[in-house]
């Protein structure tokens, strides 16, 4: 749709300047040079403040001042660059509140093979076929039918001219617009070649060039349309309508007309129209379009559901929590579209290189056509590597060779080699529950040398539960839980939730309400209960308070109790009691005052079954180092690290120390990817070359802060992400060097007479464009490994 945003500046009425954004479909704008031509045309329109052109989606988002220009002028400028605008909207009018009208997010599917351009191409192909028949087989019937400036025209010539008129005029027309916008692109080069060949009577070459290039353009349009299909499939996941309960009745309305707080009805087999919370009913919901989860997830009252997910079997009533434009699926689509605008390093290299390549080859083409006939008086025979070649001296031969180089000068396949790979990779990832927010991150992820992984909620499920309650002295379990839960009721930490749940399960009520509550970052909490200050936190916190826990935390060696030490904790805990809990991977929370220990509570977080296999798979794919970073204690970290199989772990890290750890890994290994929850690990995520957030579906912060978001809580998607990115880097390199290599070989063969105009078009232009597109489409076939947590 077409959107509007008010912007400061200008003056009209209240001192604010209205700006409208026209979102238009331009299907034929399918390459960077096309977009450059449109951009130059738009720059000449007074009142246009911004233009975002996306060849991969075939769309143009143009922001303009309605007091100085109109959408009609925008459309006219785009058409002035030689491209048809399909659909669009009329955002004009006197109504100041008319700030949004319908528009487009991606060009509609094209009827490539039945379009007007296709029909002209087929007609031209028929003329060329008949012309060649008369020229080489039916020579006796190839009679003269007319003459122009005393130049005789045979039947074959007339047919070839018919082919030029049918297939070549659209090319020449596009070349005219390129010249008008001072854009040295394929249309200008081909248009010039067709006119030049026709003008000096090389009708066979002109007709062949016009028809073959038109076929190449149709094939490229088809290939680009196929590339856009993956994004169209993503967009089609969003339901158009919703069944809403209003005044006790079910009403079917467009999804964008449903407000937050309304209740929608979702029957078995229906798509969930909007993000929301289940308020009635139970069902299994297929969330694979959003999170990529391979099995449906059971949903009951209080559970979140996402727009685009499919209700498998039960009846659900869902309270809407976000509008259609703000749903998780809408944000995914928006970010995927925006991701294509962020150029990778490869794309930037291609842009720079093509800026020199095309002018250089055009100059060589002109020199090839002009210089040899002047310096070669008679044909020259040369022996090269055992092969004999003859360098002709006539103008006709060298003109054709210059024409061929002009065709080779087009960098089309080279320029699209990276964008089509990025589009294929990003859209494929999105359909598998992985949101990559830019081609630069896709490229960077494939080149990481080490992966740093947070423990809680990433390698583990993040669902903590109390496993042991260890009171000391005269303290009972209930007293210990009452004090601990009383302190933790003010905390939002997952450990607090686990302790409160255990207290409720044990029937401990009348929890005290602490005053002066304070969170001690990375250590624990404290608060006053009945006028006395209590602490709950890591053993290190109580050691800072003056308690000596060496005896309770002493490690054993091979199962043999270590020798007694003079150090003591006053007998509060049994010998090795705390170290035994920590060796089992449990987090120990001690509760007490500055002078008395009440006891300890052990809490465990279950390791995800997929974690071990995910780490193994990363190693198999070539990741040099997988490191676990955690704020948990040494014992817990060691136990989890051994279970999961990471190369090393770093424990008891504060948030800023995780940043230091990432920097150390960068210095030692090179590029690092950091995987965390997107919120608590934000500094470390920002420090790494690639920040990856786990479980980002429905979490605004994670979606906004991470470079890459795993929409579900599946660590198994991490190897898929690396595999996809690594393969994408390989595909991009293959496309770039293959297209350049073929162009170079063809260019070297031209002076030797080994490459014809037809071969240059079929192999150098059409063949390579289809080749790089087809190679890029391979990325859509990469699937995640299915080692889920279930």
TrEMBL record:
Gene3D superfamilies: 3.30.70.100, Calcium-transporting ATPase, cytoplasmic domain N, Calcium-transporting ATPase, cytoplasmic transduction domain A, HAD superfamily/HAD-like. It is found in: Membrane. It is a multi-pass membrane protein. The chain crosses the membrane at residues 121-138, 188-216, 356-377, 398-416, 736-763. Residues 20-86 form the HMA domain. Its main location: membrane. Keywords: ATP-binding, Membrane, Metal-binding, Nucleotide-binding, Translocase, Transmembrane, Transmembrane helix. InterPro entries: ATPase_P-typ_cyto_dom_N, ATPase_P-typ_P_site, ATPase_P-typ_TM_dom_sf, ATPase_P-typ_transduc_dom_A_sf, ATPase_P-type_domA, Cation_Transport_ATPase_IB, HAD-like_sf, HAD_sf. CDD domains: HMA. Belongs to the cation transport ATPase (P-type) (TC 3.A.3) family. Type IB subfamily. This is Cation-translocating P-type ATPase. It comes from Halorubrum ezzemoulense.
